[in-house]
Input
Amino acid sequence: MICLKDIVKTYNKGKSNAYEALHGISLEIKDREMAAIMGTSGAGKSTLLHILACVDRYDSGEYTIDGQEMGKISEKQMAQERNEKIGMVMQDFALVEGFTALDNVMIPLDFAVRGHRRKRKKRRERVLKMLELVGMKEYADKQTKNLSGGQKQRVAIARAIANDPSIILADEPTGALDSATTREIMKVFHDLNEQGRTIIIVTHDPTVAEECGRVIQIEDGRILFEPPKTQAGE
Ligand code: ADP
Output
């Protein structure tokens, strides 16, 4: 469970060009939710996503993942949390173009998680399983520069789930794809969500947002009113 309470983020704090980008964001995202974050350019979506992804710090408020407060842990612990719990997918795929699909997905596994690094053979088996999950096993040995946009995004998703994170954060994952490929990639996210992962997608695309169970609207660093959802059993 992800919980944000009154999160404030100011860029260039203490300087003449200080800018408060998030003005007190409170938000709960339950395990296994699939949520879209929408808002106009400059609304604070990337800032929020970077905080959720533990790549950026906030100035005040509380951010907890499964009860653990992210503001109270060291950089090293934060990196570890990120490695174990969070997978990131970016609009431009962020793959190493000269590497094969297999070697790209291998990258997060080459970093030891809590000091335990799997043997190369085991890592390879795991990578092939991840590529199979996204329908890319037969492309394992292809260089990613020779793949289509949709295939690249599948490889990037396989890389994001390589360490078996419970949360996947995606920043405009379909922004560079045509509508047919967007549908295919959304199907991959749905499958991962059905397998129990929490998915949070920043998007400009209303068709992508509609497919998510929940749409969080952010404007000028604030969350707009969200209609309350009916609780199960009510
Ligand atoms: P979005 O992703 O919704 O387009 P951002 O989170 O990137 O919005 O930006 C929110 C606001 O914070 C914008 O006004 C932007 O100019 C400002 N901002 C973002 N990053 C920085 C930074 N590194 N330094 C100063 N201001 C920033």
